[in-house]
Design a protein that fits this description.
The strands form three sheets. Strands 8-9-12-13-14-15-16-17 form an eight-stranded parallel beta barrel, surrounded by six helices. A seven-stranded mixed beta sheet has the order 1-7-5-6-4-2-3. Strands 10-11 form a two-stranded antiparallel sheet. Helix 4 packs parallel to helix 6, helix 8 runs parallel beside helix 9 and helix 14 packs parallel to helix 15. It folds into two domains: 366 residues, TIM Barrel (Alpha-Beta Barrel); 116 residues, 2-Layer Sandwich (Chitobiase, domain 2), CATH 3.30.379.10. The protein has 512 residues and is α/β, with parallel strands linked by helices. The protein binds ligand TNX. The site of ligand TNX has 11 residues, from loops.
């Protein structure tokens, strides 16, 4: 298993608590200002003015901005108890401005009005997320609260550094229900994460309905599959489409992954013809990797790959399809190349752009997007763009330290400053910033059963990766101060998080 990468002696020699880059608690959380936003906006100018939401406040939106105005109103009504009707006039206004591009937005807060401007609905959505963070923490309650609903004054002009800012959830090792995935989407989209990669298949389970190969889920999505036999379940096509739509309302695009030619034991349990000798392997409930492989010499392999890719492409409106390709340790190299030569064109044939783990870079993948993960391995040069998710920085399933529950530590332990203190633009000398599509924070589920387990590992580190992907500059002291102030929001939302000793105010403020 992966844990052997780090010997026990080496693990014991690691310091238990990593000393933060700058010690001490850092500045005490200040009242909310436009400078407190996570991830940090491109340009911020605070002013001493403020806007106060009242029972008479209305929200103005031009017709195409009405859905986003309704989303804003729906977010603010439960805690304020105000009607906040959306109409043509109002003190809070959402409008389009062609001078603003892509995901960018401009938010201006005056004493008598709040103006949100963007070039696209996605930009307005991003501005709404910022606006929500500017209101008092009580806004996160789902029942009416007595509070002064102040929005601090000033101006924010914002735009992302990278186009692709992603989180990944592994549904194969332990299945996570559609409701759990939705709750995760709610959270990640607050921080302007705009892709969710779903790892849907692996040795222990197959979690997505494929009509032409029904035993994949009937057998390998059944109860009793998954790590220790405790991770059964799968997404029907209608569950999947519903998730895609839910994510789209929050400007999150789903990227589905079927992992091939390794990590396929569950598929072979259901269809023994997918092995070279035709003998069904045993179902696996352990967490070893690298032992299973599709048979590159059999035609049925390519029929299987094409059927799965076609059905996934049909149910996925987003542009990307991830075909795995990692850790195929039991696929002879020549077979790996032969397999990819046949399978890579299939993704294109069904109209999608390929993403593959860094190993596919060795297989002449043309313009396929490469996902860099193994910081200990070389990455061959390719023409395609790169998603940065180095395991020792961005893997949310690495333990914070050796005493924190959940997760693994084969890539070491990852405190919040480890997750924050790296630059995707100069991580790999051979991949200049212009070839970096963005970042991803993968969360593998070997040790994760429920949403509590997921949230504890994701928060706060997911926010570190979100800021690295969004913000042009990084500043650890500023980041940890803003993060500390976010604790009470998570507490109100009943989101579990790790009270890192590096972020003292996270713990302190959570108690208030
Ligand atoms: C490596 S990252 C894997 C996964 C494991 C993960 C655990 C990658 C492409 N492969 O199979 O779940 O480590 O951290």
């Amino acid at each position: 298993m992966r844990l052997t990468r780090l010997s026990v002696a080496a693990v014991l020699a690691l310091p238990l608590a990593v000393t933060p880059a700058s010690a001490g608690p850092g500045p005490r959380p200040q009242p909310i200002t436009v400078a407190g936003v996570l991830p940090a906006p491109a340009r911020v100018s605070p002013s001493p003015e403020r806007f106060i939401l009242t029972p008479a406040t209305t929200i103005a939106a031009e017709p195409a901005a009405v859905p986003m105005a309704e989303q804003l109103a729906a977010a603010l009504r439960p805690a304020t108890g105000f009607r906040l009707p959306v109409s043509e006039g109002g003190a809070i206004s959402l409008r389009f401005d062609n001078a603003i591009t892509g995901e960018g937005y401009r938010l201006t807060v005056h004493p008598d009005r709040v103006e949100l401007r963007a070039g696209t609905p996605h930009g307005l959505f991003n501005g709404v997320q910022t606006l929500r963070q500017l209101l008092p923490t009580a806004i996160e309650s789902d029942t009416v609260q007595q509070a002064e609903w102040t929005i601090p004054g000033g101006e924010i002009e914002d735009t992302p550094r990278f186009a692709y800012r992603s989180a990944m959830l592994d549904l194969a090792r332990h299945f996570h229900t559609p409701d759990e995935v939705k709750r995760y989407i709610d959270q990640i989209s607050r921080f302007k994460i705009n892709y969710l990669h779903l790892h849907l298949t692996d040795d222990q389970g197959w979690r997505i309905q494929i009509d032409s190969w029904p035993r994949l889920t009937a057998v390998s999505g059944a109860p009793g599959t998954g790590v220790r036999g405790l991770g059964g379940g799968f997404l029907t096509k209608s569950d999947y489409r519903d998730l895609v739509a839910y994510a789209a309302e929050r400007y999150v695009t789903i990227v589905p992954e079927v992992d091939m030619p390794g990590h396929v034991n569950a598929a072979q349990v259901a269809y023994p013809e997918l092995t070279c000798d035709g003998v069904a392997p045993k179902p696996r409930i352990d967490i070893r990797v690298g032992y299973s492989s599709l048979c590159a010499g059999k035609e049925v392999t390519y029929r299987f790959a094409e059927d799965v890719i076609r059905e996934l492409a049909v149910m996925t409106p987003g542009p990307y399809l991830h075909i795995g390709g990692d850790e195929a340790h039991s696929t002879p190299h020549a077979d790996y190349l032969r397999f990819q030569e046949r399978v890579l064109p299939l993704v294109q044939k069904y109209g999608k752009i390929t993403i593959g783990w860094q190993e596919i870079a060795a297989a002449n993948p043309g313009n396929a997007i490469i996902q860099y993960w193994n910081h200990e391995a070389e990455m061959p040069e390719t023409a395609g763009k790169v998603i940065m998710s180095p395991a020792n920085r961005a893997y949310l399933d690495m333990q914070y330290d050796l005493l924190t529950p959940g997760g693994l530590h084969w890539a070491g332990t990852t405190e919040v400053d480890d997750a924050y203190s790296w630059d995707p633009g100069d991580l790999l000398p051979a991949v200049p910033e212009g070839r970096v599509l963005g970042v991803e924070a993968p969360l593998w589920s070997e040790t994760l059963r429920d949403l509590d387990d997921i949230e504890f590992l994701a928060f706060p580190r997911l926010v570190a990766i979100a800021e690295i992907g969004w913000s042009a500059r990084s500043d650890w002291d500023s980041f940890r101060t803003r993060l500390g102030a976010h604790g009470p929001r998570w507490t109100r939302q009943k989101v579990r998080f790790y009270s890192s000793p590096q972020i003292p105010w996270l713990r302190e403020s959570a108690a208030r």
